[in-house]
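Page 42, continued from yesterday. The earlier attempt failed because a stray header line got pasted into the input along with the sequence. Redoing it now with the clean sequence only.
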Amino acid sequence: MYYDPIFAKSFSRYERKRFGCCAVFLCLIVALVISSTFRPHLSFLSVIVDPVNFRFSINSAQDIFAIDATTVHGSDVEYLPMSISNDQNTLLGNDTSAIFRATAIKREKMEALCTNSNYCEIEGDIRVEANSSTIYVLKKYVETMSNNHNSINSWTIEPYPRKGTSHVKKWTIKLLGHNFIPKCTQNYTHPAILFSIGGFTGNYFHDFADLLFPLYSTSYRFRKDIHFLASDYKPWWTSKYKQILEKLTINDQVVDIDREISQVHCFNNIVVGLKFYKELALDPLLPNSPMGPSMHNFRQLIRQIYSLERETTITPRKRDNNYKKRRARLIILSRRKTRSILNEGEISRLARKLGYEVVLADAGVSTNMSEFARTVNSFDVLMGIHGAGLTNMVFLPDNAVLIQVVPFGPVDGFARRDFGNPCRGMNLKYLEYKIKVEESSLSKQYPNNHPILNDPNSYKEKGWDDIWSIYLNKQNVTIDLRRLKGTLVKALKLLRR
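This time it went through. Structure tokens are written below.
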């Protein structure tokens, strides 16, 4: 197109300039209208991925999106509608144009970590319903899912450290949406631990190994700001150990959760079950801190609770002329029904000749625990045959000696596991006296060629019931004094190191 000079001369220079500015302005308006019309179709995601198949992990989604409306503050937040895929492993984004344009988001943490069928840690909106023995956890990202109960996550927990024990109620943990969980009747600001007082409770050893020490190690990080919910509740048990329980929880009373059938207790954090590594021991791979949970700190707590005066046994000191005159104190625990030591009197006389001050003691069920704890704490050496009574070693002072008399038969492994191995964490010295066949009453009950006497290890394969009924429940011992003398002398040497 050629420039027309006649047309140009029809307008003044000023008019031609105004005409050009108007044309530019009109072009800008047209461009803006076009841009607005096609904007919804220009999402940046469509360039990167297929919007229908846009996937991300659940953990990533929780870090990016506020799934539940209750977690969003203000009206200027839009969030992506979510649905759960069939395999529960991924979340599907159904509308990629609704990516967040948020200025203020509060993200509430929701987590259920069930390491096994006996232990689970949960954080989030938690509701404990005793009527159904169910712990409900509000699952934030299932708000828009269909009412399909088959797609929920659930675990069955026996909140007792040992698997397969009797008299332990099973609890179900369910992750559900708002429409499926009961309303709270009681709300708590502090977390809770739910555990069972069933199983082997009532046996003194299991009281400490299965409940008291695990309860201490599990609750330690909460620094008493914790509620105890007890399933399979036994009032006599909580009464017996009331002084210990009071030191571990913010409340003086343990809640009998099974009886709270008309209540729904709500927490932000709950532990179901108790941490358990081995009998009276913590996992050595855990961080070791002087201020953290440990058997040493547990024993310090026990000393404080029962006013135990002695922290250590007699120890040699330089220029202490009276040290050699001090007599080591030996307490021998008696048993009456099974695994009795039949010659306790002779053992006492031998020990006195070696320089011990000796006391025979029988810790029955009716024994006052505080008084007996102080009695044990006053001794340097504790001796007894394998059984729950040896649990009293927790009251011994540091550097004391435990002498475990191990019955004849295939019981060495668990005898050492129950009482020998924990000694190191308690800062105790450990000695073992193994009963020989001629010292056992079984030698008078069976002929010499019987497998019970000449092949006891064969009974390991038959299971615990046979071992218990034969080698633990039907056996008494008469200790060889000549052999025992060496063990008692060794104990003295360990004390005077």
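Notes: The first helix runs from residue 5 to 9.
Reminder to self: strip header lines before submitting.
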